[in-house]
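Q: What would this chain look like folded?
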Amino acid sequence: MSCPHCQGAEKLFDASTARGDLESYRKNGPDKTTVMLLDAIRKAASPKSTDQTLLDIGGGVGAIQHELLADTVQSAVHVDASTAYLGASQEEAGKRGHRDRVTYMHGNFVELAPEIESADIVTLDRVLCCYPDMPALVTASSAHAKHLIGVIYPRDTWWSRLGGKLFNMWFIIRRNPFRFFVHPAGAVDAAVRANGFTQRYHQESGFWQVVLYGR
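A: My prediction, written as structure tokens:
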């Protein structure tokens, strides 16, 4: 990966973090906001389709893939900047019996986008806050969505921006080039809508907002 920020993400989301997140997922299931997005996707997805596809960008341990492969999609592509997260996702997929239905790609999605086919559903669960060039990421990801795109990202408030600055102070101290971003909600919304989408669902939950778009 040519992006120093992505290299910082690889360092931050290491084997220890991935193992902890996987154990938490196995014990407690998906996070609250992820459940909200999953519910919205299931309600909006075509009930008659039997071959829907998923592109999960920055999928972590694969919670969205594992859940939707059980009842909504037939195959998935998982793109992640963390090899540790990809490994954890593959481990869980093997345990659940759908390892052969997922394609795993390591790297920066914006760089890999030309190599990746479009999918019926695209998800970015807590990914926008991990990427510096929001317009590039949102434009590329929404262009890859045939029907639905779901995003979970920080609410655009003064206290979330303050929290982001505190996080980044810690990264500077640790000499990690990774940074946390609170992108303007209006700019995110405009970038998604520019690819022909309209908002289907929006809900705020603490630090986060969950949004689903469709076309």
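The beta strands are 53-57, 75-80, 102-106, 119-125, 145-154, 198-205, 208-214.
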